[in-house]
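Board notes (copied after class):
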Amino acid sequence: MEKSKVQNQNINYISLASLISAIAVVFLHSNGVFWNFNATAGYWKSANIIESVFYFAVPVFFMISGATLLDFNKRYNLKVYFSKRIHKTVIPYVFWSFIGLAFQIIYLKNIKITEVSVAYLANGLLSGKLVDIYWFFIPLFCLYLSIPLFAAVPKEKRKGIFTYLTAGTFILNCFIPFLLNLFKIHINYSLSIGVGSGYLIYIMLGYLLSKYDISKSVRYLLYLLAVLGLVMHMAGTYILSVNSGKIIDTFKGYVNVPCVLYSVGIFVLFRYSGEKIMKINIVGKVVNFLSKYTFSMYLIHWYILQIMIKELAINTKSIYYRAFSPFAVLIITVLFTSLIRKVPILRKILP
């Protein structure tokens, strides 16, 4: 990658990436039957395809954080940075986690009030498990806590340092463990780069892929690797699972080789094709409007899906439900969030 000639480049593609990633999350959660393995059922084959195709959602969201937040100290200080994170994510997370608990007790009736204790609440909030789909908030908060460290790296040194760290992290933390798992090689392997562990690799990747120009030849290579990652995830999971009679996750995992390759290619595609797409007037207007509701969609889509399933007696294995419900969720999210935001005090729960 070469340093971008235009540092203050148009990043409207971020709005597109954010919107598509939010919709992709809904596709994943409306496709929960993937985890009900049945080798002979047609629904599982299509579920495996949907699961694999939309798997980029969380990594791309984390890369967006790296692309947009590492220069926060140009706009405000550390105190303001954390204040913004608390108001935009922590407060909504806590509020909707408690709403989710009440929703499960009163509406879904899958949790008994007698099960709830102080320890239950603390464990649920700290693990993101009061509402199962909120697990991603915990690694997100950890990323937010780590970003000031990466932001402290001088801008002129970031390309070299982040490239080294992402390459080392990918090899030591992702690639070698993947090979050992794939070929069932049992050795005491413990080499890793701590500063890039977990989802931190996506913070650096997001910055690198958004701030520096990527030549066409490198782009095409990344696209090829993305296709390889998708095929590995999709075909590998299918073959291993069918042969074993249960879901085998050798090719799954957000920091596993297939997902990293696929997500990087998708992010690059958003950057270069997304900029062109966003220049189409009507598309740009629609995306910019809907992108204001992406975080709300993360927060409330699960409730909408549960109500749809229960009240409409939906067959969750239906391909029609799994293919079209995310768009219904998008419409309902916009309408509901618009109403909530009309009340100033409630804007904090759906920022």
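Comment from the instructor: The first helix runs from residue 13 to 30. The first strand starts at residue 2 and ends at 3.
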